[in-house]
């Protein structure tokens, strides 16, 4: 009896975390459900800004989840769904910043800085290596 | 030669630091408007809709009905605190009759919305009821109040997020109307 109860509790806890804030799975088909979960995890709740619509339950997040659900059901591709959202809310609605003419610096600067640092380090090491050894003594 | 080089090495981090300070100060100064997203809808046509009128539920109102005149689309809800804040301004704008005002009653319930109008007054020429927030999504609404200025061709020319007031109206929206009167 207590084992069954424990199993029930575990199942319930697992279910709540798996379904986030929807009342039930959006799709019976596990493949569509997985796609749905992945998409809503990559769409920003623009009202709450630092959350995805998967983690928030403000009106807008619920509305956008419904929108994603309906568009998946209507057979739209991921790209079509993202395009639908960015046409209304701008690139910011995508949790992963898209690479385009306005955002290239955001992606380019970190590797460039790394490269610059590596260059400085390499030159410093080379110069020090070239110093006469008797300096050290 | 090696002396100036050494000075340069010490000055470099200082320069980088000064640059960061400028960046952060600019960021802090912008923090009030940072959460306002630029709307990709500016310059585009007002999204099409067919919605019931809030006050006469059997009347359907189409977005096409507003062509030919400037229109202020104001997104509001009875649960929206900041909408109360801008309400007096909307009432005075309505009294002046400068522009037609369309209310988009967003994610609200009918009785609550009607109570709100009875209590505070109705500045709107027409109110459409978007209880499910579908038209709200088409307008890119993410928080009430939001206001869109639509020109006679049905193009969105300006958007304001948050409560409008006389100063903001003068600054961001009225110039479009003055242009109309001048030409």
Verbal overview:
- The complex is a heterodimer of chains A (137) and B (183).
- Chain A is mainly alpha-helical and 137 residues long.
- In chain A, 61% of the residues lie in helices and 0% in strands.
- In chain A, helix 2 (30-40) packs antiparallel against helix 3.
- The longest helix of chain A has 27 residues, at 104-130.
- Chain B has six helices and seven strands, in the order H-H-E-E-E-H-E-H-E-H-E-E-H.
- The model of chain B has no long low-confidence stretch (mean pLDDT 91).
Concise structural overview:
The complex is a heterodimer of chains A (137) and B (183). By secondary structure, chain A is mainly alpha-helical.
Primary descriptors:
heterodimer; A: 137 residues; mainly alpha; B: 183 residues; alpha/beta; 5-stranded mixed beta sheet; two-stranded antiparallel sheet; 19% strand
Total beta-strand segments of chain B: 7
Poorly predicted parts of chain A: none
The string of secondary-structure elements of chain B, in order, is: HHEEEHEHEHEEH
Quaternary state of the chains: heterodimer
User: Structural class from helices and strands of chain B?
Assistant: alpha/beta
Task: Write the H/E string of chain A, N to C.
Answer: HHHHH
Class of secondary structure makeup of chain A: mainly alpha
| Cα end-to-end separation of chain A | 80 Å
Radius of gyration of chain A: 25 Å
Tell me the helix content of chain B. Answer: 40-55%
Strand order of the largest sheet of chain B: 5-4-3-6-7
Q: Work out the radius of gyration of chain B.
A: 22 Å
Query: Could you name the ranges of chain B where pLDDT drops below 50 across 5 or more consecutive residues?
Result: none
